[in-house]
Design a protein that fits this description.
Layout lengths: L4 E6 L7 E7 L2 E4 L6 H12 L9 E4 L7 H8 L5 E5 L7 E2 L5 E2 L5 E2 L20 H5 L4
Parallel strand pairs: 4-5, 5-6
Antiparallel strand pairs: 1-2, 2-3, 7-8
């Protein structure tokens, strides 16, 4: 049980982007939607009580995993249904069709979870059906 390191992350490209960050060993938790780490920890403690360990799905992407094949393999071997989106053809990943680009932060654009302008559909829904996946039909 490592003692958590609590610090603020300041984006090296845009210093106006600042958020709390918690590091526990080699695990880094970015608390983007919280003013403080304490606020994020309180939210986690409330929410973790609702987690059903028999009903977990893992959804990830290679750019947040830094294209690290060991991390991808570890996620794919959790025993939980797992989808890892990729802009490249990487074993164990769901290759996204079409043209995708990384911005200067290494974030895929367009962001696959953003809504397509003028619609109620997210970009990933053009090539992936989350309802079918959640119903274990993929």
């Amino acid at each position: 049980n490592a003692e958590p390191l609590i610090e603020n992350y300041i984006d090296p490209i845009d210093p106006k982007i600042v958020y709390p960050k918690i590091k526990i060993g080699d695990i880094e938790i970015c608390c983007l939607h919280y003013k403080t780490c304490e606020e994020a920890i309180q939210a986690w403690n409330r929410r973790k009580e609702r987690v059903n360990l028999n009903n977990i799905y893992v959804l990830g992407n290679v750019w947040n995993l830094h294209y690290n094949k060991d991390l991808i393999k570890r996620l794919n071997n959790t025993g939980y249904p797992t989808i890892i989106f990729s802009d490249l053809d990487i074993k164990g990943c769901y290759k996204m069709p079409g043209n995708w680009e990384l911005d200067n932060r290494g974030i895929i654009r367009p962001n696959i979870t953003d809504f397509i302008p003028g619609t109620t559909k997210r970009y990933y829904e053009n090539f992936f059906d989350p309802i079918t996946w959640l119903n274990k039909k993929i």
